[in-house]
């Protein structure tokens, strides 16, 4: 007996999630570059993300085409490197220095003058502007840790992008896989957290509810749902 698949969510008819999808607009340009191996992974959360936020662009390839320049702000890469801006603490990961309010005010005035090299001090993130580089669009690499590093290696233009990460996302409901934010979060959860942080009107709730349904399907598929309070 051959399986039939839903033409909308691409899942087997018996597992169709379309009834649970509540689409919403994406508040900023988002591109997910997905490694080809990840695209075949049954537990990828990107299909759910696409159903819920249809504006998100997904490209599957190893050699990636840089996106067009944004009219408003720069493309930022979600990647937890040493220079990444932590959007939760609004500090740069390894270089954070506590500043007084007056120093922060002085920074605002001098921010325009700082334009070279690595960040050497914490900058205020007023209106999500950092070192005069506004977060205009988000690029996310999707794949295992090894595959995302490969994408970086094969596409050096990615390394020229300013990077952002997060440190205080809610605990994952999908802890079976690791995500791109440096934490054990799925890509869907990572993108939700960043979008909500940058644009509070974006609601993660419908996406997290959809993810819960998917997790329930996996658990049911395994025969009996594991009763694990703590994993
Ligand atoms: Zn469906």
Automatic annotation (TrEMBL):
The EC designation for this entry is 2.5.1.25
Going by the UniProt record, its keywords in alphabetical order are: S-adenosyl-L-methionine, Transferase, tRNA processing
Location of the DTW domain: 2-223
Q: Give, as one word, the top-level EC class.
A: transferase
Q: Which GO terms describe its biological process?
A: tRNA processing
Has keyword S-adenosyl-L-methionine?
yes
Tagged with keyword Ribonucleoprotein: no
Q: Report which superkingdom the organism of origin falls in.
A: Bacteria
State the Pfam families in the record: DTW
Name the InterPro entries on file.
Answer: DTW, DTWD2/TAPT
**Recorded GO terms, molecular function?**
tRNA-uridine aminocarboxypropyltransferase activity
- Cited PANTHER family: TRNA-URIDINE AMINOCARBOXYPROPYLTRANSFERASE 2 (PTHR21392)
Family assignment? Belongs to the TDD superfamily. DTWD2 family.
Output this protein's name.
tRNA-uridine aminocarboxypropyltransferase
Species source reads Oceanisphaera profunda
